[in-house]
């Protein structure tokens, strides 16, 4: 049923994509991209058309998200040292004390400017706060309350920085912060003020060395604290004591432990729920064998769960890898559950691999099969994965078949379909298509510059992998490349195509990782640059699991 629905939605969106592609040449611009699709994970279907010129980016989208017809538009341009924006805008709202998750943002409708005066960075925006109807294909917005936004950041010395983040609306947010960096990768920060008329105070310490990583913070916030009072997006906020310590005494051994507390907002409500997670884990890699163990204790809405996970993996032959896992869940209100899993993966040739999984749970044995195929026309992967879903207190371990199919139909048009596990454990799908084309015109200074060759889009790429501290791929990892949100596939791989080499800001978005777990960024470049397909370097981003999902 899911597959047929995805297929019908994919055909509808593909037809819409082709229709827009043939209409695009009548618009003025240099590079155009159309992205459309349907997703039960986001309860959305729609399409967005984007245009890029020498000094501007523009986008226009429409669709249905969560049963509502929505749309959005954005125009961003540069003049001198300032950047101007009109329409809907994603505004990062990150405090220096946000050391566990720096992906918070707000959505606004109106006009704004980013500039610098002396040693002070300024962002000012006027219009209205907005709820967001998020999907991979169209980001719908809806104006709510008139608002003025002013973010100031000033460096007052080589190691000291002051910042002020203010949102003036029906509910006021005004948070002042001080950040001190006495040495490289050593940060102390203080933040205080009000958020949506609720008191807020935080102190943090972040210390990173090759052999140890210490993150600690204490946050005291009002029970209904939010950075901005909107219906969506909803972010969990750290509260009370939060600490994580990771030790790496050698390249073969890693151990970590910590505690985190959260205020999780309740949908369609102004209230929040307190939750907490304690975790300890260890990992050993020696003689081509990886052994890991994790212990969890979580509290969520009055229920608790003690869970353990043990995994061992080894390369038996150059073409054969094997791993096995023992999972145990001990909730407070139901009998404990044990699962045993064994996985085998064989690389038949560079384009084809097959896998088998044997699982034993509640007295039943199941054998499942998967694999992957790669060619110039198609890329197909299928495999079983295990997820930890803390909201399902009685049985938090979920095994699901994860599919990913990508077809390059004609030049510039790609069809894609995939399945995901939502934070509540349900299996969801996404089906989308992407078309890219160019229009003859100058790219560069007015009156000259390089001419765009029709159909040459895609000659430069950004490619990379997201892996954990042991080198294992992390699927469903969310990355923001400038304003483009991309996810890694089952092998932890991501790539982006574009017309010419450009440098982009890269931001890892741990709060939006798919799969029901939370992650901490170990290492990632701040900027990435696309280059030719033959010499494009592979970007490696390292993350580590730090606690259970807080969604």
Structure keywords:
single chain; 551 residues; mainly beta; Immunoglobulin-like; 26-stranded antiparallel barrel; five-stranded mixed beta sheet; 66% strand; globular; disordered C terminus
Polypeptide structure, described:
With 551 residues, this protein is mainly beta. Among the domains are: 184 residues, no CATH class; 94 residues, Immunoglobulin-like. Helix content is 4%, strand content 66%. The chain has a 26-stranded antiparallel barrel. Strands 30, 33, 35, 37 and 38 form a 5-stranded mixed beta sheet that branches. Strands 32-31-34-36 form a 4-stranded antiparallel beta sheet, with no helix packed on it. The protein is globular and about 60 Å long. The N terminus and C terminus are likely disordered.
Instruction: State which percent range the strand residues make up.
Output: over 45%
Helix content: under 10%
Look at the helices and sheets and give the structural class. mainly beta
Can you tell me the overall shape?
Answer: globular
Radius of gyration: 24 Å
Overall pLDDT level = 77
Let me know the largest β-sheet.
Answer: 26 strands, antiparallel, barrel
What's the total helix number? 1
- What's the number of extended β-strand segments? 38
User: Which segments are poorly predicted (pLDDT under 50) over 5 or more consecutive residues?
Assistant: 1-29, 438-458, 547-551
Give the end-to-end Cα distance, rounded to a whole number of Å: 27 Å
């Amino acid at each position: 049923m899911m597959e047929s629905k995805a297929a019908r939605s994919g055909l509808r969106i593909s037809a819409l994509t082709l229709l827009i592609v043939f209409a695009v040449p009548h618009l003025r611009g240099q590079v155009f991209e159309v992205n459309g699709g349907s997703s039960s994970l986001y309860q959305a279907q729609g399409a967005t058309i984007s245009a890029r010129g020498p000094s501007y980016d523009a986008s226009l989208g429409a669709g249905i998200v969560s049963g509502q017809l929505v749309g959005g538009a954005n125009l961003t341009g540069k003049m001198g040292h300032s950047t101007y924006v009109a329409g809907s805008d994603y505004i990062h709202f990150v405090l220096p004390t946000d050391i566990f998750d720096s992906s918070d943002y707000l959505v606004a409708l109106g006009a704004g400017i980013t500039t610098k005066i002396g040693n002070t960075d300024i962002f000012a925006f006027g219009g209205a706060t907005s709820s967001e109807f998020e999907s991979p294909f169209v980001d719908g917005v809806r104006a709510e309350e008139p608002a003025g936004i002013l973010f100031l950041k000033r460096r007052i010395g080589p190691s000291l920085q002051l910042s002020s983040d203010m949102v003036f609306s029906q509910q006021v947010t005004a948070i002042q912060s001080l950040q001190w960096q006495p040495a490289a990768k050593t940060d102390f920060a203080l933040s205080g003020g009000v958020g949506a008329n609720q008191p807020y105070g935080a102190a943090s310490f972040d210390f990173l060395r090759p052999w140890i990583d210490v993150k600690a913070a204490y946050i005291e916030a009002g029970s209904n604290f939010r950075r901005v009072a909107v219906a969506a997006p909803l972010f969990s906020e750290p509260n009370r004591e939060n600490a994580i310590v990771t030790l790496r005494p050698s390249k073969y051994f890693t151990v970590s432990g910590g505690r985190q507390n959260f205020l999780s907002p309740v949908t369609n409500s102004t209230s929040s729920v307190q939750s907490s997670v304690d975790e300890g884990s260890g990992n050993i890699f020696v003689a081509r064998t990886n052994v890991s163990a994790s212990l969890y204790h979580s509290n969520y809405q009055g229920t608790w769960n003690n869970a353990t996970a043990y995994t061992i993996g080894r390369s038996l032959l150059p073409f054969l890898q094997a791993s096995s896992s023992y999972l145990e869940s001990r909730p407070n209100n139901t009998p404990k559950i044990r699962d045993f899993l064994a996985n085998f993966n064989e690389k038949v040739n560079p384009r084809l691999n097959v896998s088998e999984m044997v699982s034993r749970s509640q007295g039943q044995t199941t054998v499942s099969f998967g694999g992957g195929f790669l060619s110039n026309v198609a890329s197909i992967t299928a495999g079983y994965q295990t997820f930890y879903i803390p909201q399902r207190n009685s049985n938090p371990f979920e095994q699901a078949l994860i599919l990913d199919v990508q077809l390059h139909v004609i030049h510039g048009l790609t069809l894609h379909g995939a399945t995901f596990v939502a934070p509540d454990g349900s299996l969801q799908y996404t089906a989308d298509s992407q078309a890219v084309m160019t229009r003859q015109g100058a790219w560069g200074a007015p009156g000259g510059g390089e001419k765009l060759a029709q159909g040459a889009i895609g000659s430069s790429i950004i490619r990379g992998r997201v892996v954990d501290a042991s080198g294992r791929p992390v699927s469903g990892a969310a990355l923001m490349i400038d304003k483009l949100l991309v996810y890694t596939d089952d092998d932890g791989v991501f790539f982006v195509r574009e017309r010419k080499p450009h440098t982009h800001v890269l931001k890892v978005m741990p709060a939006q990782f798919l799969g029901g777990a939370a992650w901490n960024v170990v290492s990632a470049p701040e900027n990435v640059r696309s280059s030719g397909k033959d010499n494009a370097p592979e970007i490696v981003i390292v993350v580590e699991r730090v606690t259970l999902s807080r969604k």
